[in-house]
Amino acid sequence: MNFIALKMLFGDRAKFIGIIIGLTFASLLITQQAGIFAGIMTRTFSFLQDVSLPDIWVVDPQVKYIDDIKPIQDTQVLRVRGVEGVKWAVPLYKGSLAVRLRDGTYQTCSIVGLDDETLMGGPPAMVQGNLSNLRRSGGVIVDVTGAGGKLARKLSDGTLLPLKVGDQMEINDNQAVVVGTCRVTQTFQNIPVIYMTYSSATLFAPGQRLLLSFVCVKAKPGTDLHQLCRRIELATGLRAYTRLDFMVVTFLYYLKYTGIPINFLTAVMLGFLVGVAISGQTFYNFTLDNLRYFGTLKAMGARNGMLLRMILLQALVVGAIGYGLGVGAASAWGMLLSGRTQLAFRLPWHLLVISAVAVLVICLGSAALSIRKVMKLEPAVVFRS
Predict the structure, then answer these.
(1) Which sign, positive or negative, has the C-alpha torsion 234, 236, 239, 245?
(2) How far apart are CA 380 and CA 377, in angstroms?
(3) The model's pTM
(4) pLDDT per position as a tens digit, 144-173
(5) What is the dihedral of CA 34, 39, 44, 46, to 10 degrees?
(6) Which helix (H) or strand (E) is 302 found in, with range?
């Protein structure tokens, strides 16, 4: 009977292709939009992913997410170091400063100031130069994407001349020299990232009483991180997050206070409705066209349960094909563009499961409409016609 069900499905080529196209488009749109959403939301805490060595981040109690910088006193570093269970604690500066380009225009950049002694928090991968070169007077390391894009020099013919090692730049009216380039994870703001020492960052930054952005803490082996966070909070009056907790706080902030989720949810729901409208209607019409065959099988003794399995098999076959084509197209599209453009695309296995469930619901819904018609079918009606 399974063979007969598949022969019925493949025999009506026009409707078979129509169902596949509808499910493919639905799977493609759901997977693509969900992948872009995941990529964008991952970028909100990309800085925490790059600076992976600290176990705990100590911040002002009013900080709501990673880019919500509220400076604290430099002396807090010493207080944190005195807490039981802390292996080491170093200062970290993060802020935005204007960089004057060689053509006289200005570009806002994300500035990261690393502890002068340890240089903890440096870029995850160096392309040119060494991290230790930051200790040179005015030395900075620029991310390679920014160096070849927004910080590049535009020639008269329109081509871009990337910023390279040895070039000079002006940061907030202070002279700096490029001593290396690096590769970093793209940020949510998508602006160039410049690394320098903490002393240089505080020198380049506008004068103010407080400049320290974070205290990065490494716990001693075997220390419970959440208990250490509570001890740090009691000793300093600041807020201490584990790295994972800080990622979650940042993610939830953007999820709650921006329009990103509702925009992508609308696109995902559109893909789902398109799948229901096209595939559901086409599959229902396919069943109506084959009622005479189902009636014949009923007259020959086939029970409703057997016909139910036939319809479900047909629905699952077209669902599997449409899902595979849609996910494959979305993955190829994401891999092709995310490596060459600024597109944010991430496809964890959770999204594949969500897309599979959505396609399965579409298929089962379409099958349910068809099954109801077949279950009420009287074989005599078929033979009378």
Answers:
(1) negative
(2) 9
(3) 0.82
(4) 988 888 888 877 777 788 888 988 889 888
(5) 150
(6) none
